[in-house]
């Protein structure tokens, strides 16, 4: 599902909200009948064009982990702000927790309230699979946001970022910048190694570098997605490697600490590529006065898109721009590389 980067998706308003779906009986008849039709129009239209007009009221439950990180805080804000744009949407949002049992309890409360649709970003996808199944069995469609459940039966639709593609695109960007450098050296400041997403980002990066035989990854440290860990682990990398040509940092929040360590060491012989797409990183890229030259997106706008999908599910709508009458079972967002050349296009998506 995440083995390769996907092409960029159309805009959310053009993609996610379609008109009311045809009934199952009518759709089946239109697709399978061999009999002639008395009408001149022998084909049925697919989903109608997107519309923001108010429709059937929909109550959406939203449960995520504690917003103790810039990206997670942006997830919550994207969901809240998107829901406010719809007069027919009521958002029931939990406080968020990194404690598995507490998050399960919050989700069960939403199930008991009989919300129309649930959006869940699990603190731990494996541990929360059963509560996703419980919601689905109760007739509440679940949108699994980002961290995937263990069973596809636990959700109706998954939407999230492309961790493998994130590393792949970072690697290709660095590769192209260093393709004419003889015996180029790169280092990696990863995230938490106990998370599958970190392993996927590293794998994508390593696979991209295989296309550049002149480049060798000489060191790697795993941090914890915090400023403090980024600074400490980057200091270790700088001490271990007296000279290198590029740094791939998985996360812009821990990148704040990494840049502090770099400044303290007085190092500037290399280029740095960040990850996730914070506004601070984009501002630095635009100013072009530090080693940070690019960041690879992991868009928190996925939460806004999840609201769009939940509204469509609750109103029985399809997806505008596609021929299918139902929304897809999974949507993987593209990990664009933001540089000085295109940063103005992405500034509005940068999280703080």
UniProtKB/TrEMBL annotation:
Any one GO MF annotation of this record: carbohydrate binding
One Pfam family of this chain: Peripla_BP_4
InterPro entries to which the protein is assigned, alphabetical: Peripla_BP_I (IPR028082), SBP_2_dom (IPR025997), TAT_signal (IPR006311)
Segment forming the signal sequence: 1-26
Region entry Disordered, spans: 31-58
Domain Periplasmic binding protein, residue spans: 60-317
UniProt keyword rRNA processing present: no
Protein's UniProt keywords contain Signal: yes
Database matches in SUPFAM superfamilies: Periplasmic binding protein-like I
Domain of life: Bacteria
Family assignment from sequence similarity: Belongs to the bacterial solute-binding protein 2 family.
Name the UniProt record assigns to this protein: Sugar ABC transporter substrate-binding protein
Lineage of producing organism: Bacteria, Bacillati, Actinomycetota, Actinomycetes, Kitasatosporales
């Amino acid at each position: 599902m995440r083995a390769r980067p996907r092409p960029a998706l159309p805009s959310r308003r053009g993609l996610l909200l379609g008109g009311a779906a045809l009934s199952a009986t009518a759709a089946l008849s239109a697709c399978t009948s061999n009999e002639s039709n008395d009408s001149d129009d022998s084909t049925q239209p697919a989903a109608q064009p997107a519309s923001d007009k108010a429709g059937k009221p929909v109550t959406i439950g939203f449960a995520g982990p504690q917003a103790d990180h810039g990206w997670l805080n942006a997830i919550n804000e994207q969901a809240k702000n998107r829901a406010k744009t719809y007069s027919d949407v009521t958002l029931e949002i939990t406080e968020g927790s990194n404690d598995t049992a507490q998050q399960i309890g919050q989700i069960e409360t939403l199930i008991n309230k009989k919300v129309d649709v649930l959006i869940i970003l699990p603190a731990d996808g494996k541990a929360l699979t059963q509560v996703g199944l419980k919601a689905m069995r109760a007739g509440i469609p679940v949108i699994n946001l980002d961290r995937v459940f263990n069973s596809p039966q636990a959700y109706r639709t998954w939407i999230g970022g492309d961790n493998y593609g994130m590393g792949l695109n970072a690697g290709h960007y660095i590769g192209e910048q260093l393709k004419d450098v003889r015996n180029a050296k790169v280092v990696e400041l990863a995230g938490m190694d106990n998370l599958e997403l970190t392993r996927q980002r590293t794998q994508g990066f390593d696979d991209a570098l295989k296309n550049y035989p002149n480049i060798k990854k000489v060191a790697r440290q795993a941090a914890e997605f915090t400023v403090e860990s980024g600074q400490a682990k980057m200091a270790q990398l700088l001490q271990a490697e007296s000279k290198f040509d590029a740094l791939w940092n998985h996360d812009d929040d821990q990148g704040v600490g990494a840049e502090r360590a770099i400044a303290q060491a007085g190092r500037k012989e290399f280029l740095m590529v960040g990850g996730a797409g914070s506004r601070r990183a984009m501002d630095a890229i635009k100013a072009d006065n530090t080693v940070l030259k690019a960041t690879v997106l992991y868009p928190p706008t996925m939460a806004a898109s999840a609201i769009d999908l939940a509204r469509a599910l609750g109103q029985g709508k399809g997806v505008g721009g596609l021929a299918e009458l139902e929304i897809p079972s999974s949507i993987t967002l593209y990990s664009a590389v933001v540089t000085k050349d295109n940063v103005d296009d992405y500034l509005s998506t940068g999280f703080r």
